Amino acid sequence: MTVVSKHRFAFSATAALALSTWGGTAAAQSVCGGDVVFQCATDNADFREQITVCAQDQRYALTRHALSSGEMYYDTPLIADANTTWFRWIEDDQAQVEIGFWSVDLAEPVTLHVDLPWDDMNETVADTGNFNMWLQSPHWRASVDQTLCASDTVYAAPEGLWQAQRARGPIGTFFSHDDVIPRVDTVGVARVTDGDASPEGVPVYASSRPSAATPIWWMLQPGETIDILGRAGDFIAVAIPTNGLTQCFLRPEDLGKPYTGPCATGWVDRAHLQHIQ
């Protein structure tokens, strides 16, 4: 586990987590199983909360509770499948991390952002530098809600992220929860229409049978062109170039079997798509 000098929490023998800062110590029981990969305390001096992210098996869990009382902010912990959720990692002098979670209570996505000083030569968190961590409503929205952490409370052990992703696709990106099987009669190109689109755009869902609890991976904007791979009922499977890709490629040998990348995949209501190729 990476030790980040003053930017860390103390672990007791009973796995309780304690935050020591601002002249006092507020203790709380360990609130998620597995390895703690990120943790911080919010910067609201009137009401401190602790945010904890754990990695266990093939999932990430995020909890948030009041330091003074232990009261949970989310009745249901935020869970993300490490192999399919939105995940972004960029490293240089700073390592930037994004992980997408779904809030069952709020019926909306919540994105964790972490910004860490990075020792590129040793592939680890640097001892000194700028530490930042915050929660944010979906990054595609023009108006966002953010919960900021105090920088001197950020604990980071990002090496715990990777074992949970052992079944992830060829690049770090998000994938449909349903198998997408491209076929000769289903692949093509479509243009996103503006019919009944919300101001935020047209949602790309994680499933071909979305409900209020289905994660929204992405938002498309009217006029965009998008590669299509398959269909299921009223929904079309689309391929989205992310993480530096500019377009998606599909080889003849990829037809007839589940698509696994390199582009991200999701599902769009076909009412918002016009086939052009």
What does this 3D model show about the protein?
With 277 residues, this protein is mainly beta. It folds into 2 domains: 10-163, no CATH class; 188-275, SH3 type barrels (Roll). It contains 1 helix and 21 strands. Strands 8, 9, 10, 11, 12 and 13 form a 6-stranded antiparallel beta sheet that branches. The longest helix has 4 residues, at 160-163. The radius of gyration is 20 Å and the shape is globular.
Give a short synopsis of this structure:
The chain is 1% helix and 42% strand.
The biggest sheet amounts to: 6 strands, antiparallel
Helix content: under 10%
Strand fraction equals 35-45%
Instruction: Please work out how many helical segments DSSP would assign.
Output: 1
Order of helices and strands: EEEEEEEEEEEEEEHEEEEEEE
Task: Please give the structural blueprint.
Elements (H helix, E strand, L loop, with lengths): L9 E2 L5 E5 L2 E5 L6 E7 L7 E8 L2 E8 L11 E4 L5 E5 L2 E10 L4 E12 L4 E2 L6 E5 L9 E3 L6 E2 L3 H4 L24 E5 L9 E4 L10 E5 L4 E8 L2 E6 L23 E6 L3 E3 L2
Antiparallel strand pairs: 1-2, 2-3, 4-5, 4-14, 5-6, 6-7, 8-9, 9-10, 10-11, 10-12, 12-13, 15-18, 15-21, 16-17, 18-19, 19-20
Keywords:
277 residues, mainly beta, SH3 type barrels, 2 domains, six-stranded antiparallel beta sheet, five-stranded antiparallel beta sheet, disordered N terminus, Secreted protein, signal
